[in-house]
Specification:
The chain is of the alpha/beta class and 167 residues long. It contains six helices and five strands; from the N terminus they run αββααβαβαβα. Helix 4 links the parallel strand 3 and strand 4. Helix 2 packs parallel to helix 4 and helix 4 packs parallel to helix 5. The longest helix is centred in the first third of the chain and has 16 residues.
Amino acid sequence: MTPEGQHLQFLRLALDEAKKCTPTPTAFCVGCVLVSCLEAEPIVISTGYSRELPGNTHAEANALSKFRSLPQDQLSKFNASAQSHADILASADVYTTMEPCSIRTSGLPPCAETLIDARVKRCFIGVGEPDDFVHCEGAQKLVNAGIDVIWLKGLEEESLNVARRGH
């Protein structure tokens, strides 16, 4: 499989996560997949979707939270030499169906900030966040923090359609 095909495959997994969201008229349905790139073949280390965990949570934060909740002894299945969650996240790619948010009206940290704090390597995005609720600058914040941002082509319409379910 080509690298582009592999990236689209991981974004499709993120779309599958987004489809698990309970639709609501006041928020998007977003999916996220975290992939470790420490081994020869990338491996999914966590997934998440909007409102999956209690507290008006977002997909990227949920995927990170679920990964960080894994016991230390389970990290070796992602990489034999990884000493910590941070080691794995430092080489991780994020696949998200929509641009990570830069503003949260709920008072929770924005997803862009959460990904920056996690020190992920790259973020692959299915579609930019439309201005339905707020003006988003998440991708620019990631770039400013030194995270590579890659806009994947080919699933924009599906990503937006899934995101707006319930609107």
